[in-house]
């Protein structure tokens, strides 16, 4: 027991040193800036898909509402409504292509951040790297759509499975509880994919699971705690005036980026330990 505690303490100390040496504080700030630039283009692209999907703009915003501070959510909702009211939402227009490109900036920032965490240089060409960013952006949107389907049509899906396979009432009760707790599972899948595909090195999927679990749970906890603080104690409007919502959004993105990078550092350190053994 004492040996296990000592090993854990050494591991945490080494993780802290990696976080310090990798300048996660600075890199997270860079990522937060690109997250902000890519947020609205990605939401705009998702909204343009709504005529082809069985849910509404409010359903998409509800995902943000669950975790974002109130001021930030109002900023996102207001800006999205304003932008969408001024643009042609034709799916095949050049504007949508430019929107997809802009939306991938956030994913490209994650790729650079994870390369930094794994201490590897980007060896892929610009075309391949940007294509990967776009593919991962589409994958993220697809995962969000699946999450929306489970929330909006979860009850109907459960009833169909119960009727089709003869499941009992207990199955329906468990299903209804699970479908509302789908966010941690979705986040875990997203982070597992990011940690496996984003770095410019070959990584086995199973080796990234600890970091994916940490990032998923850490992001949820940090988001909820920060949201509670801002909604109940923080008064950024008094300090920053009308841009208080933007500052809150940037801080939220900054904390989110830190969780992603720390998860990457955790995986990289774990891989090093296994190689030494």
Automatic annotation (TrEMBL):
Entry keyword Ribonucleoprotein: no
Membrane topology of the entry: Multi-pass membrane protein
GO cellular component, one term: plasma membrane
TM region(s), chain numbering: 32-53, 91-111, 132-153, 178-198, 205-230, 242-263
Keyword entries, A-Z: Cell membrane, Membrane, Transmembrane, Transmembrane helix
Subcellular location: Cell membrane
Keyword Transmembrane helix: yes
Pfam families, A to Z: Virul_fac_BrkB
Source organism, top-level taxon: Bacteria
InterPro entries found in the cross-reference section: Virul_fac_BrkB
Protein name: Membrane protein
Species assigned in the record: Oikeobacillus pervagus
Organism placement in taxonomy: Bacteria, Bacillati, Bacillota, Bacilli, Bacillales
């Amino acid at each position: 027991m004492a040996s296990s505690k000592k090993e854990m303490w050494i591991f945490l100390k080494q993780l802290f040193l990696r976080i310090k040496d990798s300048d996660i504080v600075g890199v997270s700030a860079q990522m937060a800036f690109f997250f902000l630039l890519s947020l609205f283009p990605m939401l705009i692209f998702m909204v343009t898909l709504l005529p082809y999907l069985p849910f509404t703009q409010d359903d998409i915003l509800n995902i943000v509402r669950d975790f974002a501070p109130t001021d930030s959510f109002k900023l996102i909702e207001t800006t999205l409504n304003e932008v969408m009211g001024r643009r042609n939402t034709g799916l095949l227009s050049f504007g949508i292509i430019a929107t997809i490109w802009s939306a991938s900036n956030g994913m490209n920032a994650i790729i650079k951040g994870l390369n930094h965490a794994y201490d590897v240089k980007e060896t892929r060409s610009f075309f391949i790297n940007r294509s990967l960013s776009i593919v991962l952006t589409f994958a993220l949107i697809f995962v969000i759509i699946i999450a929306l389907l489970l929330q909006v049509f979860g009850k109907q899906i459960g009833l169909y499975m119960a009727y089709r396979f003869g499941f009992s009432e207990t199955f329906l009760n468990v299903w209804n509880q699970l479908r509302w707790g789908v966010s941690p599972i979705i986040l875990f899948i997203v982070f597992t994919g990011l940690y496996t595909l984003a770095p410019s090195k070959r990584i086995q999927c199973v080796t990234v699971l600890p970091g994916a679990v940490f990032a998923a749970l850490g992001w949820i906890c940090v988001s909820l705690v920060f949201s509670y603080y801002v909604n109940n104690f923080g008064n950024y409007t008094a300090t920053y005036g009308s841009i208080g919502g933007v500052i809150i959004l940037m801080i939220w993105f900054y904390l989110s980026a830190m969780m992603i990078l720390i998860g990457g550092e955790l995986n990289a350190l774990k891989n090093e330990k296994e190689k030494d053994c």
